[in-house]
Amino acid sequence: MKTPSDSLIVMTELVLPNDTNYLGNLLGGRLMHWVDIAAALSAQRHSGKVCVTASVDEISFLEPIKLGHVVHIRSVMTRAFRTSMEIYVEVWREDPIHGTRTRTSEAYLTFVAIDQYGKPLPAPELVPQTDEERQRY
Question: What is the pTM assigned to this prediction?
C-alpha cells in the first residue's frame, strides 16, 4: 500500500534553441517527451518495477513556453488498478527575466509495470491521503 506522495516526481528543464520551433516556442513533442519521462518515473517509484507507457489519455497545451523559460514538471500517481497506473502531470513555465510563473499544460497517462518477458505485473494499492488526492482518485 502506497500513497500518491510516495510517487511524486519534480523535474526542471531549461528551454534551449534546439527545443524550439521557428517561432521560439517549445516544441509540443519535446514537452510530451519530458511529461512521459516524469510520469514513467512516478509509475516506477510506485511499483518498484520497470514501467511502460500504455496510453496518453489526455494532454492539454494551455499556454506557450518560450526559449529561455524554465519548465517545471510535477507528476504524481492518481489511481492504481489491477495492472495499470494513472499518473497526473502538471507543467509550469517560469520566465526568469520577469519572475513570472504560469501553468501551461496538464496530462493524464497510463502506465503498466512489466516483468522481464513484457507481461503486466499487479500494481500496488494506492491510498489517497488528502482531499485533493481523493478528488483525483
Answer: 0.94
